[in-house]
Amino acid sequence: MASNFSGVLQLTDLDDFITPSQECVKPVKVNKKQGRFVGKIQIEDDGTYFQVNEDGHMQKLEKAKITLNDCLACSGCITSAESILITQQSHEELYRVLRLNKQSSSSEQKLVVMSVSPQSRASLATHYSLSSSETARRLTTFFKNLGVHYVFDTGFSRTFSLLESQREFLERFARKEEDKKALPMLSSACPGWICYAEKTHGDFILPYISTTRSPQQMMGSLIKRFFASQQGMEPQKIYHVTVMPCYDKKLEASRADFYITEAETREVDCVITTGEVLKMLEEESVCLSDVEPSALDSLFSNVHGEELLCHAGSGSGGYLHHVYTHAAKQLFGIEVKEITYKTLKNKDFQEVILEKDGEVLLCFAATYGFRNIQNLVQKLKRGKSPYHFVEVMACPSGCLNGGGQLKPVADQFNKELLQRVEAAYRAEQLSLPEEDQRVAELYHTWIQSIREEKAQELLHTQYHAVEKSTNGLSIKW
Question: Could you tell me where in the chain the CATH 3.40.950.10 domains are found?
């Protein structure tokens, strides 16, 4: 099962992933005391460090801790799914808030809202041999028994992300002649990819990246801005938790861009992975298959009746599919019924081309995994990229194979598990973002009722190149 961030910095060597460097190069301040004696450092067999003073007294040294803000501000490594110490991004923190709620008066309690990703739901559904919708109904019961008030589905907020991505692509396509970095538009839903882009390629690559918020942060905006207002509550009175297939989503939620300064609260307070949900079930001695299902909270869920809906395209959100079909229709009047993917160097690098009378009208690609991302960036730097849009994901095979998903059980291969998770994910009825009436109503009642600059802030974000620093000090962990 996936590990959790409980107080140690984990560095891993994953084969095809955005892995961190094995040395942290963040400079540290050493407070020197006057005197000629130089203290000795003694390392015990268990790895514990002791400082040996002049009088022979031994003082145990605390392990250095790197906060999330330290990590985001440091250009020394690439942050990946199992590499960061995050003290307030765990299921233990969720338990702490739930316990505090039970001990507090009603006026001091927080409204706890969970937003579950479709990928996490599919992983748990496969583990318990349930349908995705049945899993959602049973998770609703489980979380509410713990003290959660609402359980939503980020498939709903993903509709906003897909619609905004479509609009942004058309706007970029219209100015491609005067703005040489308008295209290709690179998707922005993967925080591992964003972190890599900011720290490694900075100002060169960032203009290409879509400013549209990811589904997680769209939901953060919905919950802390719109939902809080509808409930007559201050944003900080809501504790918003998301369940995600990827540890990097913890990073995303902690970005300063998603902090509401006036309310002193984050839009997403805590991110737990699919594996952490399984751990919660095990700690509560609960088998999800035995839990009585509850009605779904439909306010912010992509649901029809008692069944959750899914979007067409990849298991990473379907950005290529929806932007491609929308652009083909809006720009060239072509109704695309079926998309044909051409596999290039490997299964994680695929291409889609729209042609008419031998002319290439649109050229899209899906690029998953670090090696393919590197190849894409090198093509861009050489001016050799033929693409108008690229769906970029750090994890090989995309979000269904995220680092926070459930791992294969004994005698099970990862490929077999991934196929089953994908089948559970795709078993849901498809929905078209353009035909979602509830989202259309929210655009009318919420987005259009505020000034354009504020709407841009609620639906989009920005990126920041991290200046590389050279420092001779390397701290090995």
Answer: 160-213+312-401
Sole residue written with tokens 């509410």: 144
Query: Is the bond leading into 235 cis (omega within 30 degrees of zero)?
Result: no
CA distance 448 to 297: 25
What six digits make up the tokens of 104? 């507090």
DSSP code string of 400-412: GG-TTSPPP-TT-
State how far the Cα of 95 lies from the Cα of 102, in Å rounded to an integer.
11
pTM of the predicted protein model: 0.80
Cα distance between residue 23 and residue 6, in whole Å: 20
Which amino acid is present at 49? Y
Residues 221-251 pLDDT 10s:
999 999 998 899 999 999 999 999 988 898 8
Per residue in 122-174, pLDDT (tens digit) is 999 999 999 999 999 999 999 999 999 999 999 999 999 999 999 999 999 99
CA dist 71 → 25, 273, 388 (Å): 10, 20, 32
pLDDT tens profile 293-340: 998 887 877 767 777 888 888 989 999 999 999 999 999 999 998 899
Tokens linked to 45: 């067999």
Given a contact cutoff of 8 angstroms between Cβ atoms, the answer to whether 385 and 375 are in contact is: no
Q: Looking at beta carbons, which pairs linking 380-387 to residues 24 or more positions away fall under 8 Å?
A: 380/184, 380/204, 380/205, 380/208, 381/204, 385/184, 386/360, 387/183, 387/184, 387/363
- Looking at the domain covering 160-213+312-401, what would its CATH class be? alpha beta
Q: What is the pLDDT of residues 82-126, one digit of tens each?
A: 344 455 678 989 999 999 999 988 888 999 999 999 999 999 999
DSSP string of 139-205, one letter each residue? HHHHHHHHT--EEEEHHHHHHHHHHHHHHHHHHHHHTTTT-TTS-SEE----HHHHHHIIIIIHHHH
The arrangement of secondary structure in 80-158+214-311+435-457, i.e. its CATH architecture, is 3-Layer(aba) Sandwich (3.40)
Q: CATH 3.40.50.1780 residue ranges in the chain?
A: 80-158+214-311+435-457
> Distance (Å, rounded) from C-alpha 457 to C-alpha 475?
38
